[in-house]
Design brief:
This protein is an all-beta fold and about 130 residues long. The chain is about 0% helix and about 35% strand. It comes from Ambispora leptoticha.
């Protein structure tokens, strides 16, 4: 069983741009591909999944729901974060063309005082 990247706690800003707003529960991050969108090339956008589907998000089946909050264009998830919720991340990550590694994160609590996310980018990719 492998761990994910190091978790970080990000201070919540009341003055963040509209494409960076978060909600309680799960938040999916990615980049808006629409060059006409105000959020384009300004960092990751955040899709607020919250507690949808009982808080369960399957990145293979549910990524079609990830849309830029400004232009509603689908984006490819690259990272995720949590606010004021218990969470557990698990799945299979491709390590080579023929092998996969079971990746699991123990249950933890993300407080409402900061946004809990994983350092870096591309935590979610076609290798999952």
């Amino acid at each position: 069983v492998s761990k994910l990247s190091i978790m970080v706690m990000v201070k919540i800003s009341q003055n963040c741009p509209p494409w960076k707003r978060i909600t309680e529960g799960l938040n999916i991050e990615g980049y808006c591909p629409n060059s006409s969108c105000q959020s384009y090339n300004k960092g990751r956008v955040i899709f607020c999944w919250g507690f949808g589907n009982g808080g369960v998000f399957n990145f293979l089946q549910d990524k079609q729901f990830c849309k830029c909050p400004l232009c509603n264009r689908n984006f490819e998830p690259t990272n995720f974060g949590f606010l004021d919720t218990w969470y557990k991340v698990s799945g299979w990550k491709k390590t080579s063309s023929t092998e996969a590694l079971n990746v699991s994160h123990e249950w933890e609590f993300a407080p409402n005082s900061s946004y809990t996310t994983f350092s870096g980018d591309n935590q979610i990719s076609s290798d999952w």
